[in-house]
């Protein structure tokens, strides 16, 4: 008996032993569509959908148009970490990441479920404080990617001890967060529903 024949037999036995293979993949596909639909409703951009589902680009485009009622916006997301380090944005990003890390320690959720749950909680928090949610779902997704890639991390403020999004090499001994050490222009914003410092 040669090896090729043996492998073919093993395949044949495996195929008989697993008759559920086909319906399983249909089930998986419907899960993928469900997931994509949920992400589109949360305002996710195409890059998020392509990264978090196994659906083809063409299918995602069709799904996007159907659910969002418009074509997805073109263009790449910025690859810079700067946005998350600007004062007001940093406070939002930090709030989200604290929620995300808290949730990730508890339940055994898959990463996208964790992300959507954390983002919903973040939105509720800022909503209840009557603050405009600056961190879109796509931004939140990007933030988690930056943290996973060690391009951003969280550092505890040396004054209030709250954890804030920083660059990985931030000096923790001297680090002051944006709330303890706001920029001179902070709180003078004329924009409604923006963060105020008292
Ligand atoms: Zn502080």
From TrEMBL:
Pfam families: FlhC (PF05280)
Extent of the signal sequence: none
Note on cofactor: Binds 1 zinc ion per subunit.
Binding-site list for Zn(2+): 157, 160, 177, 180
Cofactor annotation: Zn(2+)
Entries under InterPro entries matching the protein: FlhC (IPR007944)
Entries under HAMAP family matching the protein: FhlC
Task of the protein: Functions in complex with FlhD as a master transcriptional regulator that regulates transcription of several flagellar and non-flagellar operons by binding to their promoter region. Activates expression of class 2 flagellar genes, including fliA, which is a flagellum-specific sigma factor that turns on the class 3 genes. Also regulates genes whose products function in a variety of physiological pathways.
Subunit note: Heterohexamer composed of two FlhC and four FlhD subunits. Each FlhC binds a FlhD dimer, forming a heterotrimer, and a hexamer assembles by dimerization of two heterotrimers.
Family that this chain belongs to: Belongs to the FlhC family.
Listed NCBIfam families: PRK12722.1
Name used for this protein in its record: Flagellar transcriptional regulator FlhC
Species annotation: Curvibacter microcysteis
Gene: flhC
